[in-house]
Design brief:
Oligomer: single chain
Helix content: 40-55%
Number of helices: 10
Number of strands: 17
Radius of gyration: 26 Å
Strand content: 15-25%
Strand order of the largest sheet: 1-12-7-2-3-4-13-16-17
């Protein structure tokens, strides 16, 4: 029998299989791998999607009071109210311990985070209660609004204060905050003085250090016995910590690494309640990715200008002229008054501009 030619051997493959069959096997294997990858991606997406709860009750309450809300402003700027809640054992109720307005400029080249002191005295409107009926309109500290009528009441109180229409809102509890910090491997902070939290049995000593979730919560929430004990001082610590957390996520490439990204997304979504416009992983990722593209020196950290309330010890009132200028700039999507904000540098320090 004549020896097979070089072309014949190539046509049958290295092990005597025709090349066409080898290609077919390769195509089937590739298709199976892609199918498995799609299935895994779908399962991950389904898990994250099931984590996030849609805040339909708040949407219904806001729709019921739509006539009392600021008009929708044409344009592409977005105002997202972030509410951090905590159940107060002493009061047996839930209040908004942290309130931040995330304003994304229409051109998405700048953003600002405006913190509202929880003890700021404001006019809280009559709000629909989750169990039915309405609360009475009253002058009280801002964080009580959530207790009276949930996120809808906090949103309407903020809108009444500022004249700014809220487009979206996110509500997260502090258990989620702990999970997120742990998911990124901790965050480095600079502790100015000794901080102690008896609830978790945690004591933070002065100096730069990487804190885990519970330690981070102690750092951002501590008020009594720290510096002047004021809520304004705590707000400044919270703003600096959030910047450090976002810098950690960005610098470690978390958004581009699936093995790092999934634990963070799982931690966020498992403790999150979102309005219908932000209640899916895709919508949340789009929001995060948009914010990530904004340079750190174009993100302004602001606190509603406030001073001690002469009529209520330990409470605050707005500095009217400065607050009015701030709210006007946010409504019009223009540059914030420079004397009201700090710009964070990429190294994490605060740079006055």
């Amino acid at each position: 029998m004549a020896k097979s030619s070089m072309a014949d051997r190539f046509a049958r493959g290295a092990k005597g299989l025709p090349v066409s069959r080898i290609l077919k096997i390769f195509a089937i294997a590739t298709a199976l791998i892609l199918l498995i990858a799609v299935a895994i991606s779908w399962l991950i997406y389904a898990q994250l999607d099931s984590n996030t709860r849609t805040d339909e009750a708040t949407q219904r309450a806001l729709d019921a009071d739509h006539g009392a809300r600021p008009t929708v402003v044409a344009g592409k700027a977005q105002n997202i109210l972030l509410l951090g809640t905590d159940s107060e054992a002493d009061w047996g109720s839930t209040r908004a311990d942290t309130t931040i307005l995330l304003h994304l400029a229409a051109n998405r080249r700048s953003a600002s985070m405006t913190s509202v002191p929880r003890d700021l005295m404001v006019d809280i409107p009559a709000c629909l209660r989750p169990e039915g009926g309405r609360s009475r309109a009253q002058h009280a500290q801002f964080n009580w609004a959530y207790q009276f009528g949930g996120a809808a009441c906090s949103i309407r109180t903020f809108e009444n204060l500022t004249g700014i229409r809220i487009d979206h809102h996110l509500v997260a509890d502090f258990s989620g905050f702990i999970k997120v910090v742990d998911a990124v491997g901790g965050v480095e902070v600079d502790v100015a003085e000794r901080v102690r939290q008896s609830q978790y049995g945690i004591t933070l000593q002065p100096g730069r250090q990487t804190v885990n979730g519970k330690e981070a919560l102690t750092f951002v929430r501590a008020r009594l016995g720290v510096s002047d004990g004021s809520d304004l001082q705590r707000v400044e610590r919270q703003k600096q910590f959030m910047h450090q957390l976002l810098s950690k996520i960005n610098s470690t490439g978390t958004l581009y690494n699936p093995t790092r990204l999934y634990p963070v997304l799982d931690a966020v979504t498992s403790s999150l309640v979102a309005d219908p416009g932000l209640d899916s992983p895709a919508e949340l990722y789009s929001l995060v990715n948009t914010a990530r593209m904004i340079p750190p020196n174009r993100v302004r950290a602001v606190t509603v200008p406030s001073v001690e309330d002469p009529d209520h010890w330990g409470r605050y009132v707005t500095v009217k002229k400065q607050a009015k200028a701030l709210f006007k700039a946010l409504r019009r999507d223009t540059a914030l008054p420079k004397h009201l904000y700090n710009a964070y540098r990429p190294d994490g320090r605060v740079a006055d501009e």
